Structure formats: structure tokens, C-alpha cells
């Protein structure tokens, strides 16, 4: 929270990039130094959509600023060659496609920070290679006939899914998997098994996910069987976002997320109250956007003691907002300022009053913050974890702040949460506010990350 006039400058280091052949890899030029290898070797069933998939990734490279090479030659998997790439796309590969030396080179590549993108039959690949199975997230088991289905978008902040509605109706070949990746990966979207015939995953059917895996970044989508998929603007947007995440051009929280319940799911503000002037506007796509102020929308239905709070947020430009925690119930927003703590959202203020700071008390780790932050116009995810008097903040899965309250006039041990509407010139949007209550006894221990 701040009432001073701001100059429009950019957060240092926060900008992110915007955005079939056999034999040696064939290169297509890009713009910003990022390079992707598309690998489409098949040792089993071969999808006739592979050429369309390669063409689509090439076009996405042109519009999103990365170079694309395409190959079906496993000899490309050497440590020296893989170092040229920010991500490797396994495009409907099938069967055993790499020998032992090539597998070792690829494992080394991922462990040194490389990216992986798996499309459709990438899950029907290398069943005897444990590392690959963990990287892909799950192995293919079976599929019914191609048919329409409803996809439930669970994460609307990740670049692969942020542009989608809460439900996505499309036609494809819908894989069943041998295991559920939810416990180890972060699920982005799942299938509504009641919307089609042939789902076998007992109502919890992930179809796209991401994860941090042994030092690397991994994204998988089960879509992409049909040629038509690669001409579908929404599927192309989905694929582009997954690739941008894998190459490190956009950031997201890809830690597994289980046990949270919604406080705001995009459909209802039950339990919430506005304190002070201004308001929030709820759009048809489930986004809350601040208007006027200074005020605060707070969750009045209950307070919280020990918890992990997650929410997605986006600035339009050089805007100002914040998330308040640990304050007593009140219709006066200044009560939250004076009795609680604010985790700031602001592009340009001084370190202890800018994004990720505990406003006025503790700056974020600015180097970590800047590396993790997506710029205005793109979604970010906060985790705010309160245990006893300790408050920690994660931005897109990276811990950027660790603060302990020592002020006897304030306490984090019991209080409410709220989001700020700062003023007429500040438009900040929020989605998917959710919470997981933690055992109070965890506050007594020295909690890990």
C-alpha cells in the first residue's frame, strides 16, 4: 500500500521473452536466443499428425521468439548437442527411441536445467526407462475412440492454460494413464469423465501437467493426436505456453498442489466483504479486478491460524495492490494496515515496498524475485505460508521472502486475509484464491520448504 505518485519504470530483470524430418536436425531461425529440439522418432505406432505438429511448433517459434530444430535421429542426443537447446519436445514418440548412452546424455541435460515437453504419445515411450517415466509424469495405458470431451482447467495462471476458460470443450483421442501424476506433478487440466465414454481413472483424470524434475522443467499435454489439433488456436496457445515454460521464458508454480479448498473460485464471493472505498469487478471468466480505493476485499467468513494461502494475480502495468494477512475483523481497511501485514504487489517502489516484500518491514530477495517474476500482462502465483509468527512467500514456486513477526502489538497467529484495491489508477486482477489449513503444531517446529 502506498499513496505516492509513481513513475512508470520496469522491474529490473523481470522481463520475459514474448512470446517432420529424419536425419540431422533441420533448423528454423528464431529471435531471442532460445532454441527447441523437436524429436519425433517412433518405434511403435506412428501418428499421422506428426508433420502438422512439427509445422505448428515451427510457427509458434516464429511468433514466440525461439528457434526450432526437428529430427528423428536419436544421434542428436549427445551431451554436446543437447547443450544447444533450452527444451526438447517429444512429439508423439513411441516405443524405445534412445539407447543407453543417449538416455544418459538426456538425463544429464535435464539435471543441468534443461526443459522437456511431452505431447500426446510421449507418454507411450520408453517404458523401461525409469527416469523418463518420472519426467513424463505417467505412462499411457489405453484410449477410447476419438470423441468430444470437456476439459476442466485447474490452473489458470500457468502460461499453458491462462488463456483458457474454466472448461474447454474439444475433440481428441483421450489417453488413460497407468498411474495418476497428481501427487508428484502439478495438474493443469483434467478430463471430466462424465462428458465422454471410455475414461478409466475413477473421476480424477489429469490430462496436462507440469513439474520441476531433478533440476529441469517438464510440461506434458495429452492432447495432440489429431491433425486438427495443430490448427486449433486454443490448442496452439496451450502448446506455446507449455513450451515457453519449459524453455524458461515464462514462470509458474509447478510444485504439486493438493489439499487446498477455494475461498474464491471465480463464481461466487460468498464470505467476502468490501471494506472502505472502491470495489472489485467480477468478470465472466472468473477474474476479480480492482477498481478505485483505497479499500480492501476481505474474507469475513472466518479467520485463519496456520495455513498456506495461494492466489493468482496479474498487473496491467505499473500498478499497486497487495495481500493482507493476520488482521482482526473490521470494516476499516486501515485496521489491516495497522494490525496485519501486507505482501506487496507493485512494480516500481523501493525494495521493502515492492513486489514480494512484507510492506514496510522486509524486502524480498530481489535477485530471486526478479528471476521468478512474470511481467505486467502475465499471471503470477503467490504462496503465502503462515506458521506461528513466521510468514514466508513463494512467487511462482520460488521462495522470495522469510519474515518473522516480533512486534507484540501484532500477531500472525490468528487473523483474516484480504486483497487490496489501491486506487483509480491501479488495476490488479486476481484468480483462484485457495487455502490449505496446516496443523497448528507445525508452527512449533522449524518447518522446511
How would you describe this protein?
- It is a single chain.
- By secondary structure, the chain is of the alpha+beta class.
- Helices cover 15% and strands 32% of the residues.
- The chain has helices at residues 50-64, 79-82, 100-111, 130-136, 233-246, 333-339, 366-372, and strands at residues 26-28, 34-39, 66-71, 87-91, 115-119, 140-142, 147-153, 167-172, 176-177, 186-191, 205-213, 216-221, 261-264, 272-275, 279-282, 288-291, 295-299, 307-315, 320-327, 341-346, 380-387, 390-395, 398-404, 416-421, 428-437.
- The chain has a ten-stranded mixed beta sheet with strand order 1-3-2-4-5-12-11-10-7-8.
- β15 (279-282) and β16 (288-291) form a beta hairpin.
- Mean pLDDT is 91; it is low at 1-31 and 442-448.
Outline:
By secondary structure, the protein is of the alpha+beta class. The protein has helices at 50-64, 79-82, 100-111, 130-136, 233-246, 333-339, 366-372; strands at residues 26-28, 34-39, 66-71, 87-91, 115-119, 140-142, 147-153, 167-172, 176-177, 186-191, 205-213, 216-221, 261-264, 272-275, 279-282, 288-291, 295-299, 307-315, 320-327, 341-346, 380-387, 390-395, 398-404, 416-421, 428-437.
